[in-house]
Design goal:
Helices cover 51% and strands 3% of the residues. By secondary structure, the chain is an all-alpha fold. The chain folds into two domains: 101 residues, Serine Threonine Protein Phosphatase 5, Tetratricopeptide repeat (Alpha Horseshoe); 51 residues, no CATH class. A hairpin with a 4-residue loop joins strand 1 and strand 2. Helix 3 packs parallel to helix 5 and helix 6 packs parallel to helix 8.
Length: 153
């Protein structure tokens, strides 16, 4: 992703990433990446905080529920919204939530009203642990209490 300069180890703003993403999609790039890729382009955009690219991908029909491979870097098994929550990329999280994405870790990080419904769906233990960790890291003691009351490990 263009936002992170690996040579200098710096984050930067880069104009035109959305236009570049549109051009790639128009040229036939698959919106959800190639089969077997460890993460989708939307997950990568979420990890790097590129809300412009995320918006283009959402508009092109990217799968909001797709997850990274279990052995992927970043947040293994996480959705784009989870990546945005874990890496505190709030602008991308806003794009994803507006598009209808939901994720237990994001809800825990933000104290979202969606938390109760997501807990009622009996999420996997790994999701509950991740939500508990993120809520604790963010100082969301009200959310920690809610997660523990719902049976989080």
């Amino acid at each position: 992703m263009l936002r992170y300069d690996a040579v200098r180890g710096e984050w930067r703003d880069v104009a035109g990433t959305g236009a570049l993403a549109r051009a790639l999609l128009s040229a036939g790039a698959p919106v959800d990446g190639a089969p077997g890729d460890p993460e989708t382009p939307l997950i990568t955009a979420a990890s790097y905080g590129d809300a412009e690219v995320a918006q283009v991908l959402v508009e092109a029909g990217a799968d909001l529920a797709a997850t990274a491979a279990p052995d992927a870097g970043g947040v293994p098994g996480g959705t784009a919204l989870r990546h945005a929550a874990v890496f505190e990329m709030t602008a991308v999280a806003d794009v994803l939530v507006a598009a209808g994405a939901t994720d237990l870790v994001h809800a825990a990080a933000t104290g979202s009203a969606a938390l109760t419904g997501l807990l009622g769906a009996d999420p996997p233990e790994a999701d509950r642990v991740a939500a508990l960790r993120v809520a604790a890291e963010r100082g969301r003691l009200d959310v920690v209490d809610q997660l523990l009351a719902a049976g989080a490990p």
